[in-house]
Design brief:
The protein is α/β, with parallel strands linked by helices. It has helices at residues 11-17, 19-36, 39-48, 50-53, 56-103, 108-111, 116-158, 160-166, 169-207, 209-215, 218-270, 276-298, 300-317, 379-386, 409-413, 430-435, 443-452, 456-461, 479-493, 509-523, 558-564, 567-575, 580-583; strands at 338-346, 354-363, 368-372, 394-399, 402-403, 416-420, 497-501, 527-531, 543-548, 551-556. It is 63% helix and 10% strand. The protein starts with 10 loop residues before the first helix and ends with a helix.
Length: 584
């Protein structure tokens, strides 16, 4: 992306890159500082002017000026804060959108090694830290810094000798920077990594509650979560300890500074080198001057936390593990002619172990192909390679005679539909889940897809029909109902190529029958690739490809393979019970 703020290396560079969008809010926030800056001078004028001459009218006039400044300060503060908040909120929406956008391009060889909770931590918590810090810098630190400069100049004009005393704040800041900042950065790095681990572990076990409870292993899950929680808790204790040391140091230093200013000003007043009004102005202005220093030091911990969050986000945004697809080719609709040309593949996590070995296979448009074989033989991998979720280690895949690398793979994926064994549904209504494949679909199209998938009957029995919520991941529906909704989703897309990944596995007989009927309708007139576990579901396949260790060892139709008495016949025999399978 051109002029992308997230291309910046640090958080401060990111802030500078977005300065034009933040300009309006920052200017308003700076006006609030200018409006409040005359306060100490007005106090000095009241004491050294009207008080000395017993001028009550002058007190009211100067007091009115002060109130006017405060009203202007109030208006600009609220207005500026609102503008900054709106801009920052939009920037964070864009940052989160960029994170999710980037996730769509990261290769699954990278994503397979990432915990969902860790990615969620980047998306939600790290962006929140960045937003909190930048809002504080823009809405508090910068305006207070300008106010401090204005008040500093005013007080220096009133009495430069006492002003020199205030410069003692610099050693306090220097000590804080060199002694504390490194420790704060280290503990925040440790806390961020521990939080990512905690979020990832918690996300994993919460999503696997059914598994944990089914095995009665609640104690084991609790112990694993407790270990992650205790690790995070230790980093929080370290953060609190360093923060307490730092905060106490700053507080004591500033109190000593206050004493020095008051004592030094009193001595100068005793010797006639300072008026009482000027001393009062210094006492009133001292808070303004040290406020940005105090705030800058106080923001150091949130800064390092936000910088860690920004670094974590940048790790994702800048990740080199992206899909290597740069093709632009699109057509009105593909025919479904697919060729695996000497394809080999090994997962990046185990580069020496090839899952697919020099595979050569041609699939004609409209042909129904079935992949069968033992677990680990490469069936699902072939489908993932066709979808472009992984790229072949060697060889290539041709789609309609064109190399996969030349196609726009995102467009290609919209030409395919996948029905998986455990069809994933999203939170929302039944209708929303069907329409996910074609957001612009009409109610009539959704209804027709439900009819063709044998889902209409049970949907209409629900309290709210197509508007019935399905719960997270479709938890309120049975496995067969989820499958039929997934098939309706595929029917709605009307793809030229259909991939069925063990779509009827682990279902009862009635559900399998209804789903198989729906799949038969869905398969008409298109290229179909079935990854089969139940071999009874592929009787009508045009060609069955038998795989073992990534190699094709047999191929043919159901009857011819059965007659050969080879590996396929052995698989059939293993699934048969007293010959019932062969007779079915």
């Amino acid at each position: 992306m051109q002029n992308d703020p997230l291309e910046q290396g640090s958080l401060l560079h990111y802030l500078w890159a977005t300065r034009r969008r933040l300009r309006r809010g920052v200017i308003l926030a700076l006006f609030r500082s200018l409006a409040a800056a005359p306060g100490p001078w007005i106090f000095q004028q009241i004491v050294d002017g009207p008080l000395k001459h017993s001028d009550v009218h002058g007190v009211f006039v100067l007091s009115a000026c002060f109130i006017g400044c405060m009203l202007a300060h109030y208006v600009f503060s609220v207005w500026g804060a609102n503008e900054i908040a709106k801009t920052m909120s939009q920037l964070m929406v864009e940052m989160r959108s960029r994170i999710f956008f980037r996730l769509q391009f990261l290769s699954f060889s990278y994503l397979d090694g990432q915990k969902t909770g860790r990615l969620l931590s980047k998306y939600a918590f790290d962006t929140q830290k960045v937003e909190g810090l930048l809002t504080a810098v823009l809405n508090q630190l910068l305006p207070n810094l300008l106010m401090s400069i204005c008040v500093f100049a005013t007080l220096a004009w009133l009495n430069w000798k006492l002003m020199l005393i205030l410069l003692l704040v610099l050693p306090i800041y220097t000590v804080a920077k060199y002694y504390f900042f490194g420790r704060i950065k280290r503990v925040n790095t440790e806390a961020r990594l521990a939080q990512e681990k905690l979020t990832g572990t918690a996300s994993e076990y919460i999503s696997a509650l059914r598994l944990v409870r089914s095995f009665g292993e609640e104690k084991q899950a609790e112990q694993e979560l407790d270990r992650s929680s205790e690790s995070f808790a230790r980093t929080r204790v370290d953060q609190s300890y360093v923060s307490a040391l730092f905060g106490t140091y700053v507080y004591v230093g500033m109190q000593v500074m206050s004493l020095i200013v008051v004592a030094g000003g009193t001595i100068l007043a005793i010797h006639g080198q300072l008026t009482i009004g000027t001393l009062l102005a210094f006492m009133a202005g001292f808070g303004y001057i040290i406020a940005p220093v105090h705030m800058f030091i106080g923001l150091s911990e949130p800064y390092f936390a936000a910088q860690e969050g920004y670094t974590s986000i940048k790790e994702l945004i800048d990740s080199r593990y992206v899909e290597d697809w740069h093709g632009k080719r699109r057509e009105k609709r593909i025919r479904g002619d697919i060729v695996y040309e000497d394809v080999s593949f090994a997962y990046p996590s185990a580069p020496e172990k090839f899952v697919i070995r020099h595979l050569k296979l041609s699939i004609r448009p409209g042909e129904h192909i079935a992949f069968v074989g033992p677990s680990g033989s490469g069936k699902s991998t072939l489908a993932n390679l066709l979808l472009g979720l992984y790229a072949p280690t060697s060889g290539r895949i041709l789609i309609d005679g064109v190399p996969q690398s030349e196609w726009d793979m995102r467009w290609i994926r919209r030409q395919l539909s996948v029905v998986m064994q455990d069809s994933l549904l999203l939170s929302g209504s039944v209708g929303d889940n069907i329409r996910f494949a074609k957001p612009e679909a009409t109610e009539a199209e959704v209804l027709k897809a439900a009819q063709q998938s044998n889902a209409e009957e049970f949907i209409l029995r629900m309290a709210d029909g197509f508007k019935t919520p399905v719960g997270e991941r479709g938890v309120s529906l049975s496995g067969g109902q989820r499958q039929r909704i997934a098939i309706a989703r595929a029917i709605l897309r009307n793809p030229p190529v259909l991939i069925l990944d063990e779509a009827t596995s682990a279902l009862d007989y009635e559900s399998e029958r209804l789903i198989q009927e729906a799949l038969d309708r869905l398969s008409e007139g298109r290229t179909v690739i079935t990854i089969a576990h139940r071999l009874s579901t592929i009787r009508n396949a045009d060609r069955i490809i038998v795989l073992r260790d990534g190699d094709i060892i047999e191929q043919g139709n159901f009857q011819s393979l059965l007659a050969q008495g080879g590996v396929f016949a052995e698989l059939i025999s293993a699934q048969s019970s007293d010959g019932k399978f062969l007779q079915s």
